[in-house]
Amino acid sequence: MSSTVLVFSDSLPDDQKARLAERYTLADFSAYDAPSTAPGFDDALARARGAIGVSMRWPAETIERAPHLRVLSSVSVGVDAYDVAALSQRGIALGHTPDVLTDTTADTAMTLLLATARRVVELAEWVRAGQWTAPVGRDQFGVNVHHKRLGIVGMGRIGQAIARRAAFGFGMEVVYHNRSRKPEAEDEIGLRYVEFDELLADADFVCVVVPGTDDTHHMFDEAAFERMAPHAIFINIARGSVVDENALVAALDAGGIRAAGLDVFQGEPIGADHPLVGRNDVVALPHIGSATFETRYDMARLAVDNLIAGLEGEPMPACYNAADLEL
Ligand SMILES: NC(=O)C1=CN([C@@H]2O[C@H](COP(=O)(O)OP(=O)(O)OC[C@H]3O[C@@H](n4cnc5c(N)ncnc54)[C@H](OP(=O)(O)O)[C@@H]3O)[C@@H](O)[C@H]2O)C=CC1
Ligand SMILES: O=C(O)C(=O)CO
């Protein structure tokens, strides 16, 4: 009898799903927005040897109800939705999708930088509302991006891709803060390492691209926003959990920072009544960092590669907890 694979989101194109279907019995919950409450989910979880998808939380309690699970393959690079310790303890491999989304996510960060600085969304809406009745003046001016100082918090794969775009494309001075120094990136891109507080105080743009973990939870709190300059623009392409959203609203309201460009929020999806939506000093996007046809396809293919390799006992191309499993 073939192994059961649980598909828990609508993230696999047909050809990639077919690669799984020809090897395994699929328990396919991709039609459900909330698969974990769908009829038959608990039975499928109890049978599954593999699971693949994104945007569903896997706390220890869910993992416990999957006694046969060997491989959990996420169609994302971030693994904050999974209890990694509980997976590793059970010897379950966690696949993820680094690298294939790096450039696309960096492009989205630059989009937010430009959109906030040049007030693109606000002014496009202004045109659409028929308010462009005379040449623009100071009321419509933005601020320059080129040759300004960008502070990046989190100099990993995506942080470095953003830094290259900013330094080589826009002539920006890039400073960074990270858990560990990145000497090669410093040399290649011309980066300068600074302490977190110095970065906050001196940057014209602050962009965060760390993973969502206990350590990074509310890294951007009231004190962090207070250290930033009133002209500074804050960009979050990482996870909503890194920001205390009440503190961000307060900083914007008080003129403590100029604007924010946000791709991610604490509780996604958010509604039109969210305090960070509907204001001209915020560009709010629906978590589209990696959301292009090409990149989402590449992510799905890598996630399927991970799942098949893991279930067939071969090395997975990208196993997040490989080091834990070797212990
Ligand atoms: N908006 C979107 O659609 C997307 C969002 N993301 C988010 O971006 C994150 C980063 O992705 P990626 O660049 O590929 O990951 P990487 O692991 O390559 O980079 C993360 C960096 O953050 C650093 N870091 C981790 N914790 C801390 C901390 N407490 N303080 C300072 N630095 C820290 C790491 O340091 P060190 O090198 O020392 O380990 C690492 O350099 C993902 O985890 C995901 O949450 C990713 C893709 C799309
Ligand atoms: O991969 C991730 O972690 C995302 O947030 C979406 O691509």
Automatic annotation (TrEMBL):
The UniProt record lists the keyword NAD: yes
Residues in coiled coil: none
Keywords assigned: NAD, Oxidoreductase, Pyruvate
InterPro entries given in the database record: D-isomer_2-hydroxyacid_DH, D-isomer_2_OHA_DH_cat_dom, D-isomer_DH_CS1, D-isomer_DH_NAD-bd, NAD(P)-bd_dom_sf
PROSITE patterns assigned to the protein according to its UniProt record, in alphabetical order: D_2_HYDROXYACID_DH_1
Single GO MF descriptor: glyoxylate reductase (NADPH) activity
Taxonomy, superkingdom: Bacteria
Enzyme class, first EC level, given as a word: oxidoreductase
EC number in record: 1.1.1.81
Domain D-isomer specific 2-hydroxyacid dehydrogenase NAD-binding: 110-289
Gene Ontology cellular-component annotations: cytosol
Limits of the D-isomer specific 2-hydroxyacid dehydrogenase catalytic domain: 8-320
UniProt family annotation: Belongs to the D-isomer specific 2-hydroxyacid dehydrogenase family.
Name the UniProt record assigns to this protein: Bifunctional glyoxylate/hydroxypyruvate reductase B
UniProt source species: Salinisphaera hydrothermalis (strain C41B8)
Organism lineage: Bacteria, Pseudomonadati, Pseudomonadota, Gammaproteobacteria, Salinisphaerales
